[in-house]
Amino acid sequence: MRIHFLILLFLSFFCTNMAHAAAKIGFDKEVYKFGTAQYGDKIGQKFVVTNLGSDPLIIGDVQADCGCTKTLKGSSEIPANSSSEISVEYDTEGERSGKKEKHIFVHSNDPERPIVKLSLVGELIKELEVDPPTFAQKLETFQEDISIPVKIKNTSDTARKITAIKTAEKVISVGMEPKSLVVEPNTSAPLTIMLHLKKQDDRPFYLGRIALQTDHPVEKELNFRFLVQITGKK
Predict the structure, then answer these.
(1) Cis omega (within 30 of 0) on the bond before 178?
(2) Most exposed: 56, 65, 137, 144, by fewest CB within 10 Å?
(3) Rounded to an integer, what distance in angstroms lies between the CA atom of residue 78 and that of residue 76?
(4) Domain for residue 7, yes or no?
(5) pLDDT in the model for residue 202
(6) Per-residue pLDDT tens over the stretch 126-172
(7) Would the CA dihedral through 225, 35, 51, 10 be positive or negative?
């Protein structure tokens, strides 16, 4: 019995010391609330990472869940009781307005928390928007021309102008009516987006992005996405 007790005591002491010796990751914060941001802003933040263990903390991959978010880690190896930084920048250009939550995943050799999720949380505000921002339609047969009624919202205190429409898609051409549109401050105005589809045999769908060009100094393009699916005989 005494031998068994000594073995258990030794194993308990050994495991306790091993756990204490392991690297242990800690952050000054894991969520950064940036409040509200205007479209086009670049939101930067530094997260301080500290090694709370006694073994060196190895920082591996630092991955963002969105191409709009860039990361830069400081030291890849952090000694015990030392700190480094992970810099994050969220570029709002090209993003839709509304609630935003961007995540960064930090990989390390901490046995208890091998992956830690950091977050940027807030709301993005745009002065110009297309309503609705997307269009989807199913057609039984091919239709060459499609008209899409939308509204352009202007929440700024300055009149803004929609000056042109364009797309990089090769299988469609686009137009708008009217050909130029002025939207008064804090109002919305109707606009018709016109799609001209180029017929291609055995093509089941047409999809892509349309850009409405504006005279806004920052929000120079409004993105509109479309999907037209041909379900029957073309």
Answers:
(1) yes
(2) 144
(3) 7
(4) no
(5) 83
(6) 999 999 999 999 999 999 999 999 999 999 999 999 999 999 999 99
(7) negative
